[in-house]
Amino acid sequence: MNKKVNIGLGFRREIANEFLEANSVQPDFIEVAPENWIDLGGYWKSKFKEVTEKYPLVLHGLSLSIGSPEEPDWEFLKKLKSFIKEYNVKIYSEHLSFAKMDNAHLYDLLPIPFKDDSIKHVVKRIQQVQDFLEMKIAIENVSYYTPVDAEITEDVFVKKIVEEADCNLLLDVNNVYVNSFNHKYNAHDFIDNMPLDRVKYIHMAGHNKVSDDLIIDTHGEAIIDPVYDLFDYTLNKMKYNVPVLLERDFNFPEIKELQKEMEVLRKISLKNIDHNVVYR
């Protein structure tokens, strides 16, 4: 049995130097949004090349807008395919959401209606993208603050899309916690209903509780204990060991604090590894 666990950290410009300094931060892999790096040159292109020579790279997209009514952005996908090849990327993930309509970019990740018609549309789009990229993609369950014309539950919606599109799942445990709190459903039941054999990797992050009945998914705070507990529960339900990424997008603490969070994730992952059959 492989006892290795992979714990990653999002590569951000604000903490870029820490990734290149010896013993500063020690992730097993890094994740970036390809849109932020594809057309970049000069100083940051050089920095990016340096860091990707040190760490394996995972891509988490922001603008594919898989739920939009129009055709996929083929020009972007051409650039993305070249980028994936250039940096030997094994995992590309995107949000189960939409972010543009009629070429108007909304600069937010909006929920797709939980409906059978939406499932058919999204499945077709995912299959188109996978055929073009010649690889399976991973779709992430997203946080949302109001359901839009829902006819089925979120868990059924996500599961049907992943299974019918024959794609992978990026399971964001913090998003499950946030949505379960805001929409008053049982987070454990949601995890139980996910196609856990399709999980390619896991996101863990912090959030901001703004009132007694509202949590905002921010990626700007430390992970709280209930989210760690849900992560532990999730790993205990899985048959496979998968990579885990710590997301932090702003409000960065000292790098040693991020390293501590990564070590907590590693500890929980190692605790659950004995009942998992193989590393994926």
Q: How would you describe what is shown here?
A:
This protein has 280 residues and is of the alpha/beta class. The protein has a single domain (7-279), classed as TIM Barrel, CATH 3.20.20. Helices cover 39% and strands 19% of the residues. It is built from 9 helices and 14 strands. The protein has helices at residues 16-20, 42-54, 74-86, 116-133, 154-165, 173-183, 187-193, 225-237, 255-271, and strands at 7-10, 30-32, 57-60, 92-95, 98-101, 104-110, 138-140, 168-172, 199-204, 208-211, 214-216, 240-241, 244-246, 278-279. The chain has an 8-stranded parallel barrel. A two-stranded antiparallel sheet has the order 5-6. Strands 10-11 form a two-stranded antiparallel sheet. Strand 10 (208-211) and strand 11 (214-216) form a beta hairpin. Helix 4 runs parallel beside helix 5 (154-165) and helix 7 (187-193) packs parallel to helix 8. It is globular. The two termini are 12 Å apart. The mean pLDDT is 92.
